[in-house]
């Protein structure tokens, strides 16, 4: 289990922090470290492919089966591993309710699924990859309260045993976080936790 630390003096927002961690670009000043190693020395494809799992507000789904959408997280995964990831993501129940189950073909961008169902497929994909770091970028912000509850249960399971970076506007989403970092106009203005507020 690793830790993430870094010094990011000027960023434009919360999602920028995630983009820096994934090495979509590098900071102008300072550095981002993973287990004490400057991530600029790491292969970005290895970092994104094996170390970091990313779930955002609008997950990317493809016009293929649910099985293949989940397997995209790790193409060499067995069917059993896909089923297990879906169970952990609280997705197996709704998938099995479809007439074709895991063979159900999704419309482009997953239009045949609800927002909560899309998120749980994305969580299953991330869990199949078994990343050491999980980034959740406003993962529940677009959901109704019922869907948010189902997705939050899945995220709680997904968070176990790994470092998790949660990007959120709502304090309720991050209430269980060990450390909460507040950004304003691209600068860190407070570091605390929920109990201290």
Automatic annotation (TrEMBL):
It is a multi-pass membrane protein. One of its GO terms (cellular component) is mitochondrial inner membrane. InterPro entries: AAA+_ATPase (IPR003593), ABC_transporter-like_ATP-bd (IPR003439), ABC_transporter-like_CS (IPR017871), P-loop_NTPase (IPR027417), Type_1_exporter (IPR039421). Keywords: ATP-binding, Ion transport, Membrane, Nucleotide-binding, Potassium, Potassium transport, Transmembrane, Transmembrane helix, Transport. One of its GO terms (molecular function) is ATP binding. Its main location: mitochondrion. It is found in: Mitochondrion inner membrane. GO terms for biological process: oligopeptide export from mitochondrion; potassium ion transport. Residues 1-196 form the ABC transporter domain. Belongs to the ABC transporter superfamily. ABCB family. Multidrug resistance exporter (TC 3.A.1.201) subfamily. This is Mitochondrial potassium channel ATP-binding subunit. It comes from Pelobates cultripes.
